[in-house]
Amino acid sequence: MSFYHSHGGRYREQEGMSFQKETLDGYFAALAEAKLPKTRGEEEIRRAIAMGLEAADSIEDRTISCFSRGELPHWAGINTFLKMPFLENVHEVDQFDIAILGVPFDIGTTYRPGTRFGPQAIRRISALYTTYNYELGVDLREQVKICDLGDVFTIANIEKSFDQITKAVSHVMSKGTMPIILGGDHAIGYPCLRGVAENIDGKVGIIHLDRHVDTQEKDMDERMHTTPWFHATNIPNAPPSNLVQIGIGGWQVPRAGVSVARERGTTILTMNDVERLGINAGGYNSGWRQKAWSRTRSSISSTAGTA
């Protein structure tokens, strides 16, 4: 049996199936686009021209500026996340709904370094994308206010860097803004959660997408990238019962971490569980926990897609 028949939806296997254009998601997505505002996009164009000079007289498209000062072109300009505005004064973060902050940190890794360059790489690749998603019918630029705060100053010490990260995340949370953190090795999960939890009156839920459990107490006698959720679930308002881990499996799951997960009663879904229960398995699992959770923090490891 082909991959197409094994993994495609059953409706794909129906021979001679007909459809009406007006019933397609693509049809409704096109209609939804017409309802989206364009105000902030137009403001950005005007700002780019005001700050970066009008284009040369030979340029027919007068929305183009002389110096690149906005989203376009995708291969040029200063790479903030999705070309969102860089906010130098972090005290003004309360003017935004979402703040992007990078954590260039990899001294918590036990094998391959290099994730300290992760925030740079994510910003660079994000420049290829627009803020509009056709299927979802959303335009992030128009519907939420996003800024890029730059990077946390991490230093050559794990615990002191943890303190820096916690202070940065806590500052953003205290201003009523949602932080999105670009790592960085997975050791940063603990200080990030610590910064979130101290600003939440109720309990915090953790959704962790990875192939590794990351729940052992120490690795190489330190709190490394294999340990964040052991320490995060020691925080009083982030108990182990509120940790849901999705995709755990394979040949790189330390038994020490599995033992902790079993003893503490965390919830683990393997990829077999996700295939059996559906792609929304983690969401369903979260749903019946909502009474116990006030806020949710999601963590995605780069190994979530590995074998």
From TrEMBL:
<keyword id="KW-0479">Metal-binding</keyword>
<dbReference type="InterPro" id="IPR006035">
    <property type="entry name" value="Ureohydrolase"/>
</dbReference>
<dbReference type="GO" id="GO:0033389">
    <property type="term" value="P:putrescine biosynthetic process from arginine, via agmatine"/>
</dbReference>
<dbReference type="GO" id="GO:0046872">
    <property type="term" value="F:metal ion binding"/>
</dbReference>
<dbReference type="GO" id="GO:0008783">
    <property type="term" value="F:agmatinase activity"/>
</dbReference>
<dbReference type="Pfam" id="PF00491">
    <property type="entry name" value="Arginase"/>
</dbReference>
<keyword id="KW-0378">Hydrolase</keyword>
<dbReference type="InterPro" id="IPR023696">
    <property type="entry name" value="Ureohydrolase_dom_sf"/>
</dbReference>
<comment type="similarity">
    <text>Belongs to the arginase family.</text>
</comment>
<protein>
    <recommendedName>
        <fullName>Agmatinase</fullName>
    </recommendedName>
</protein>
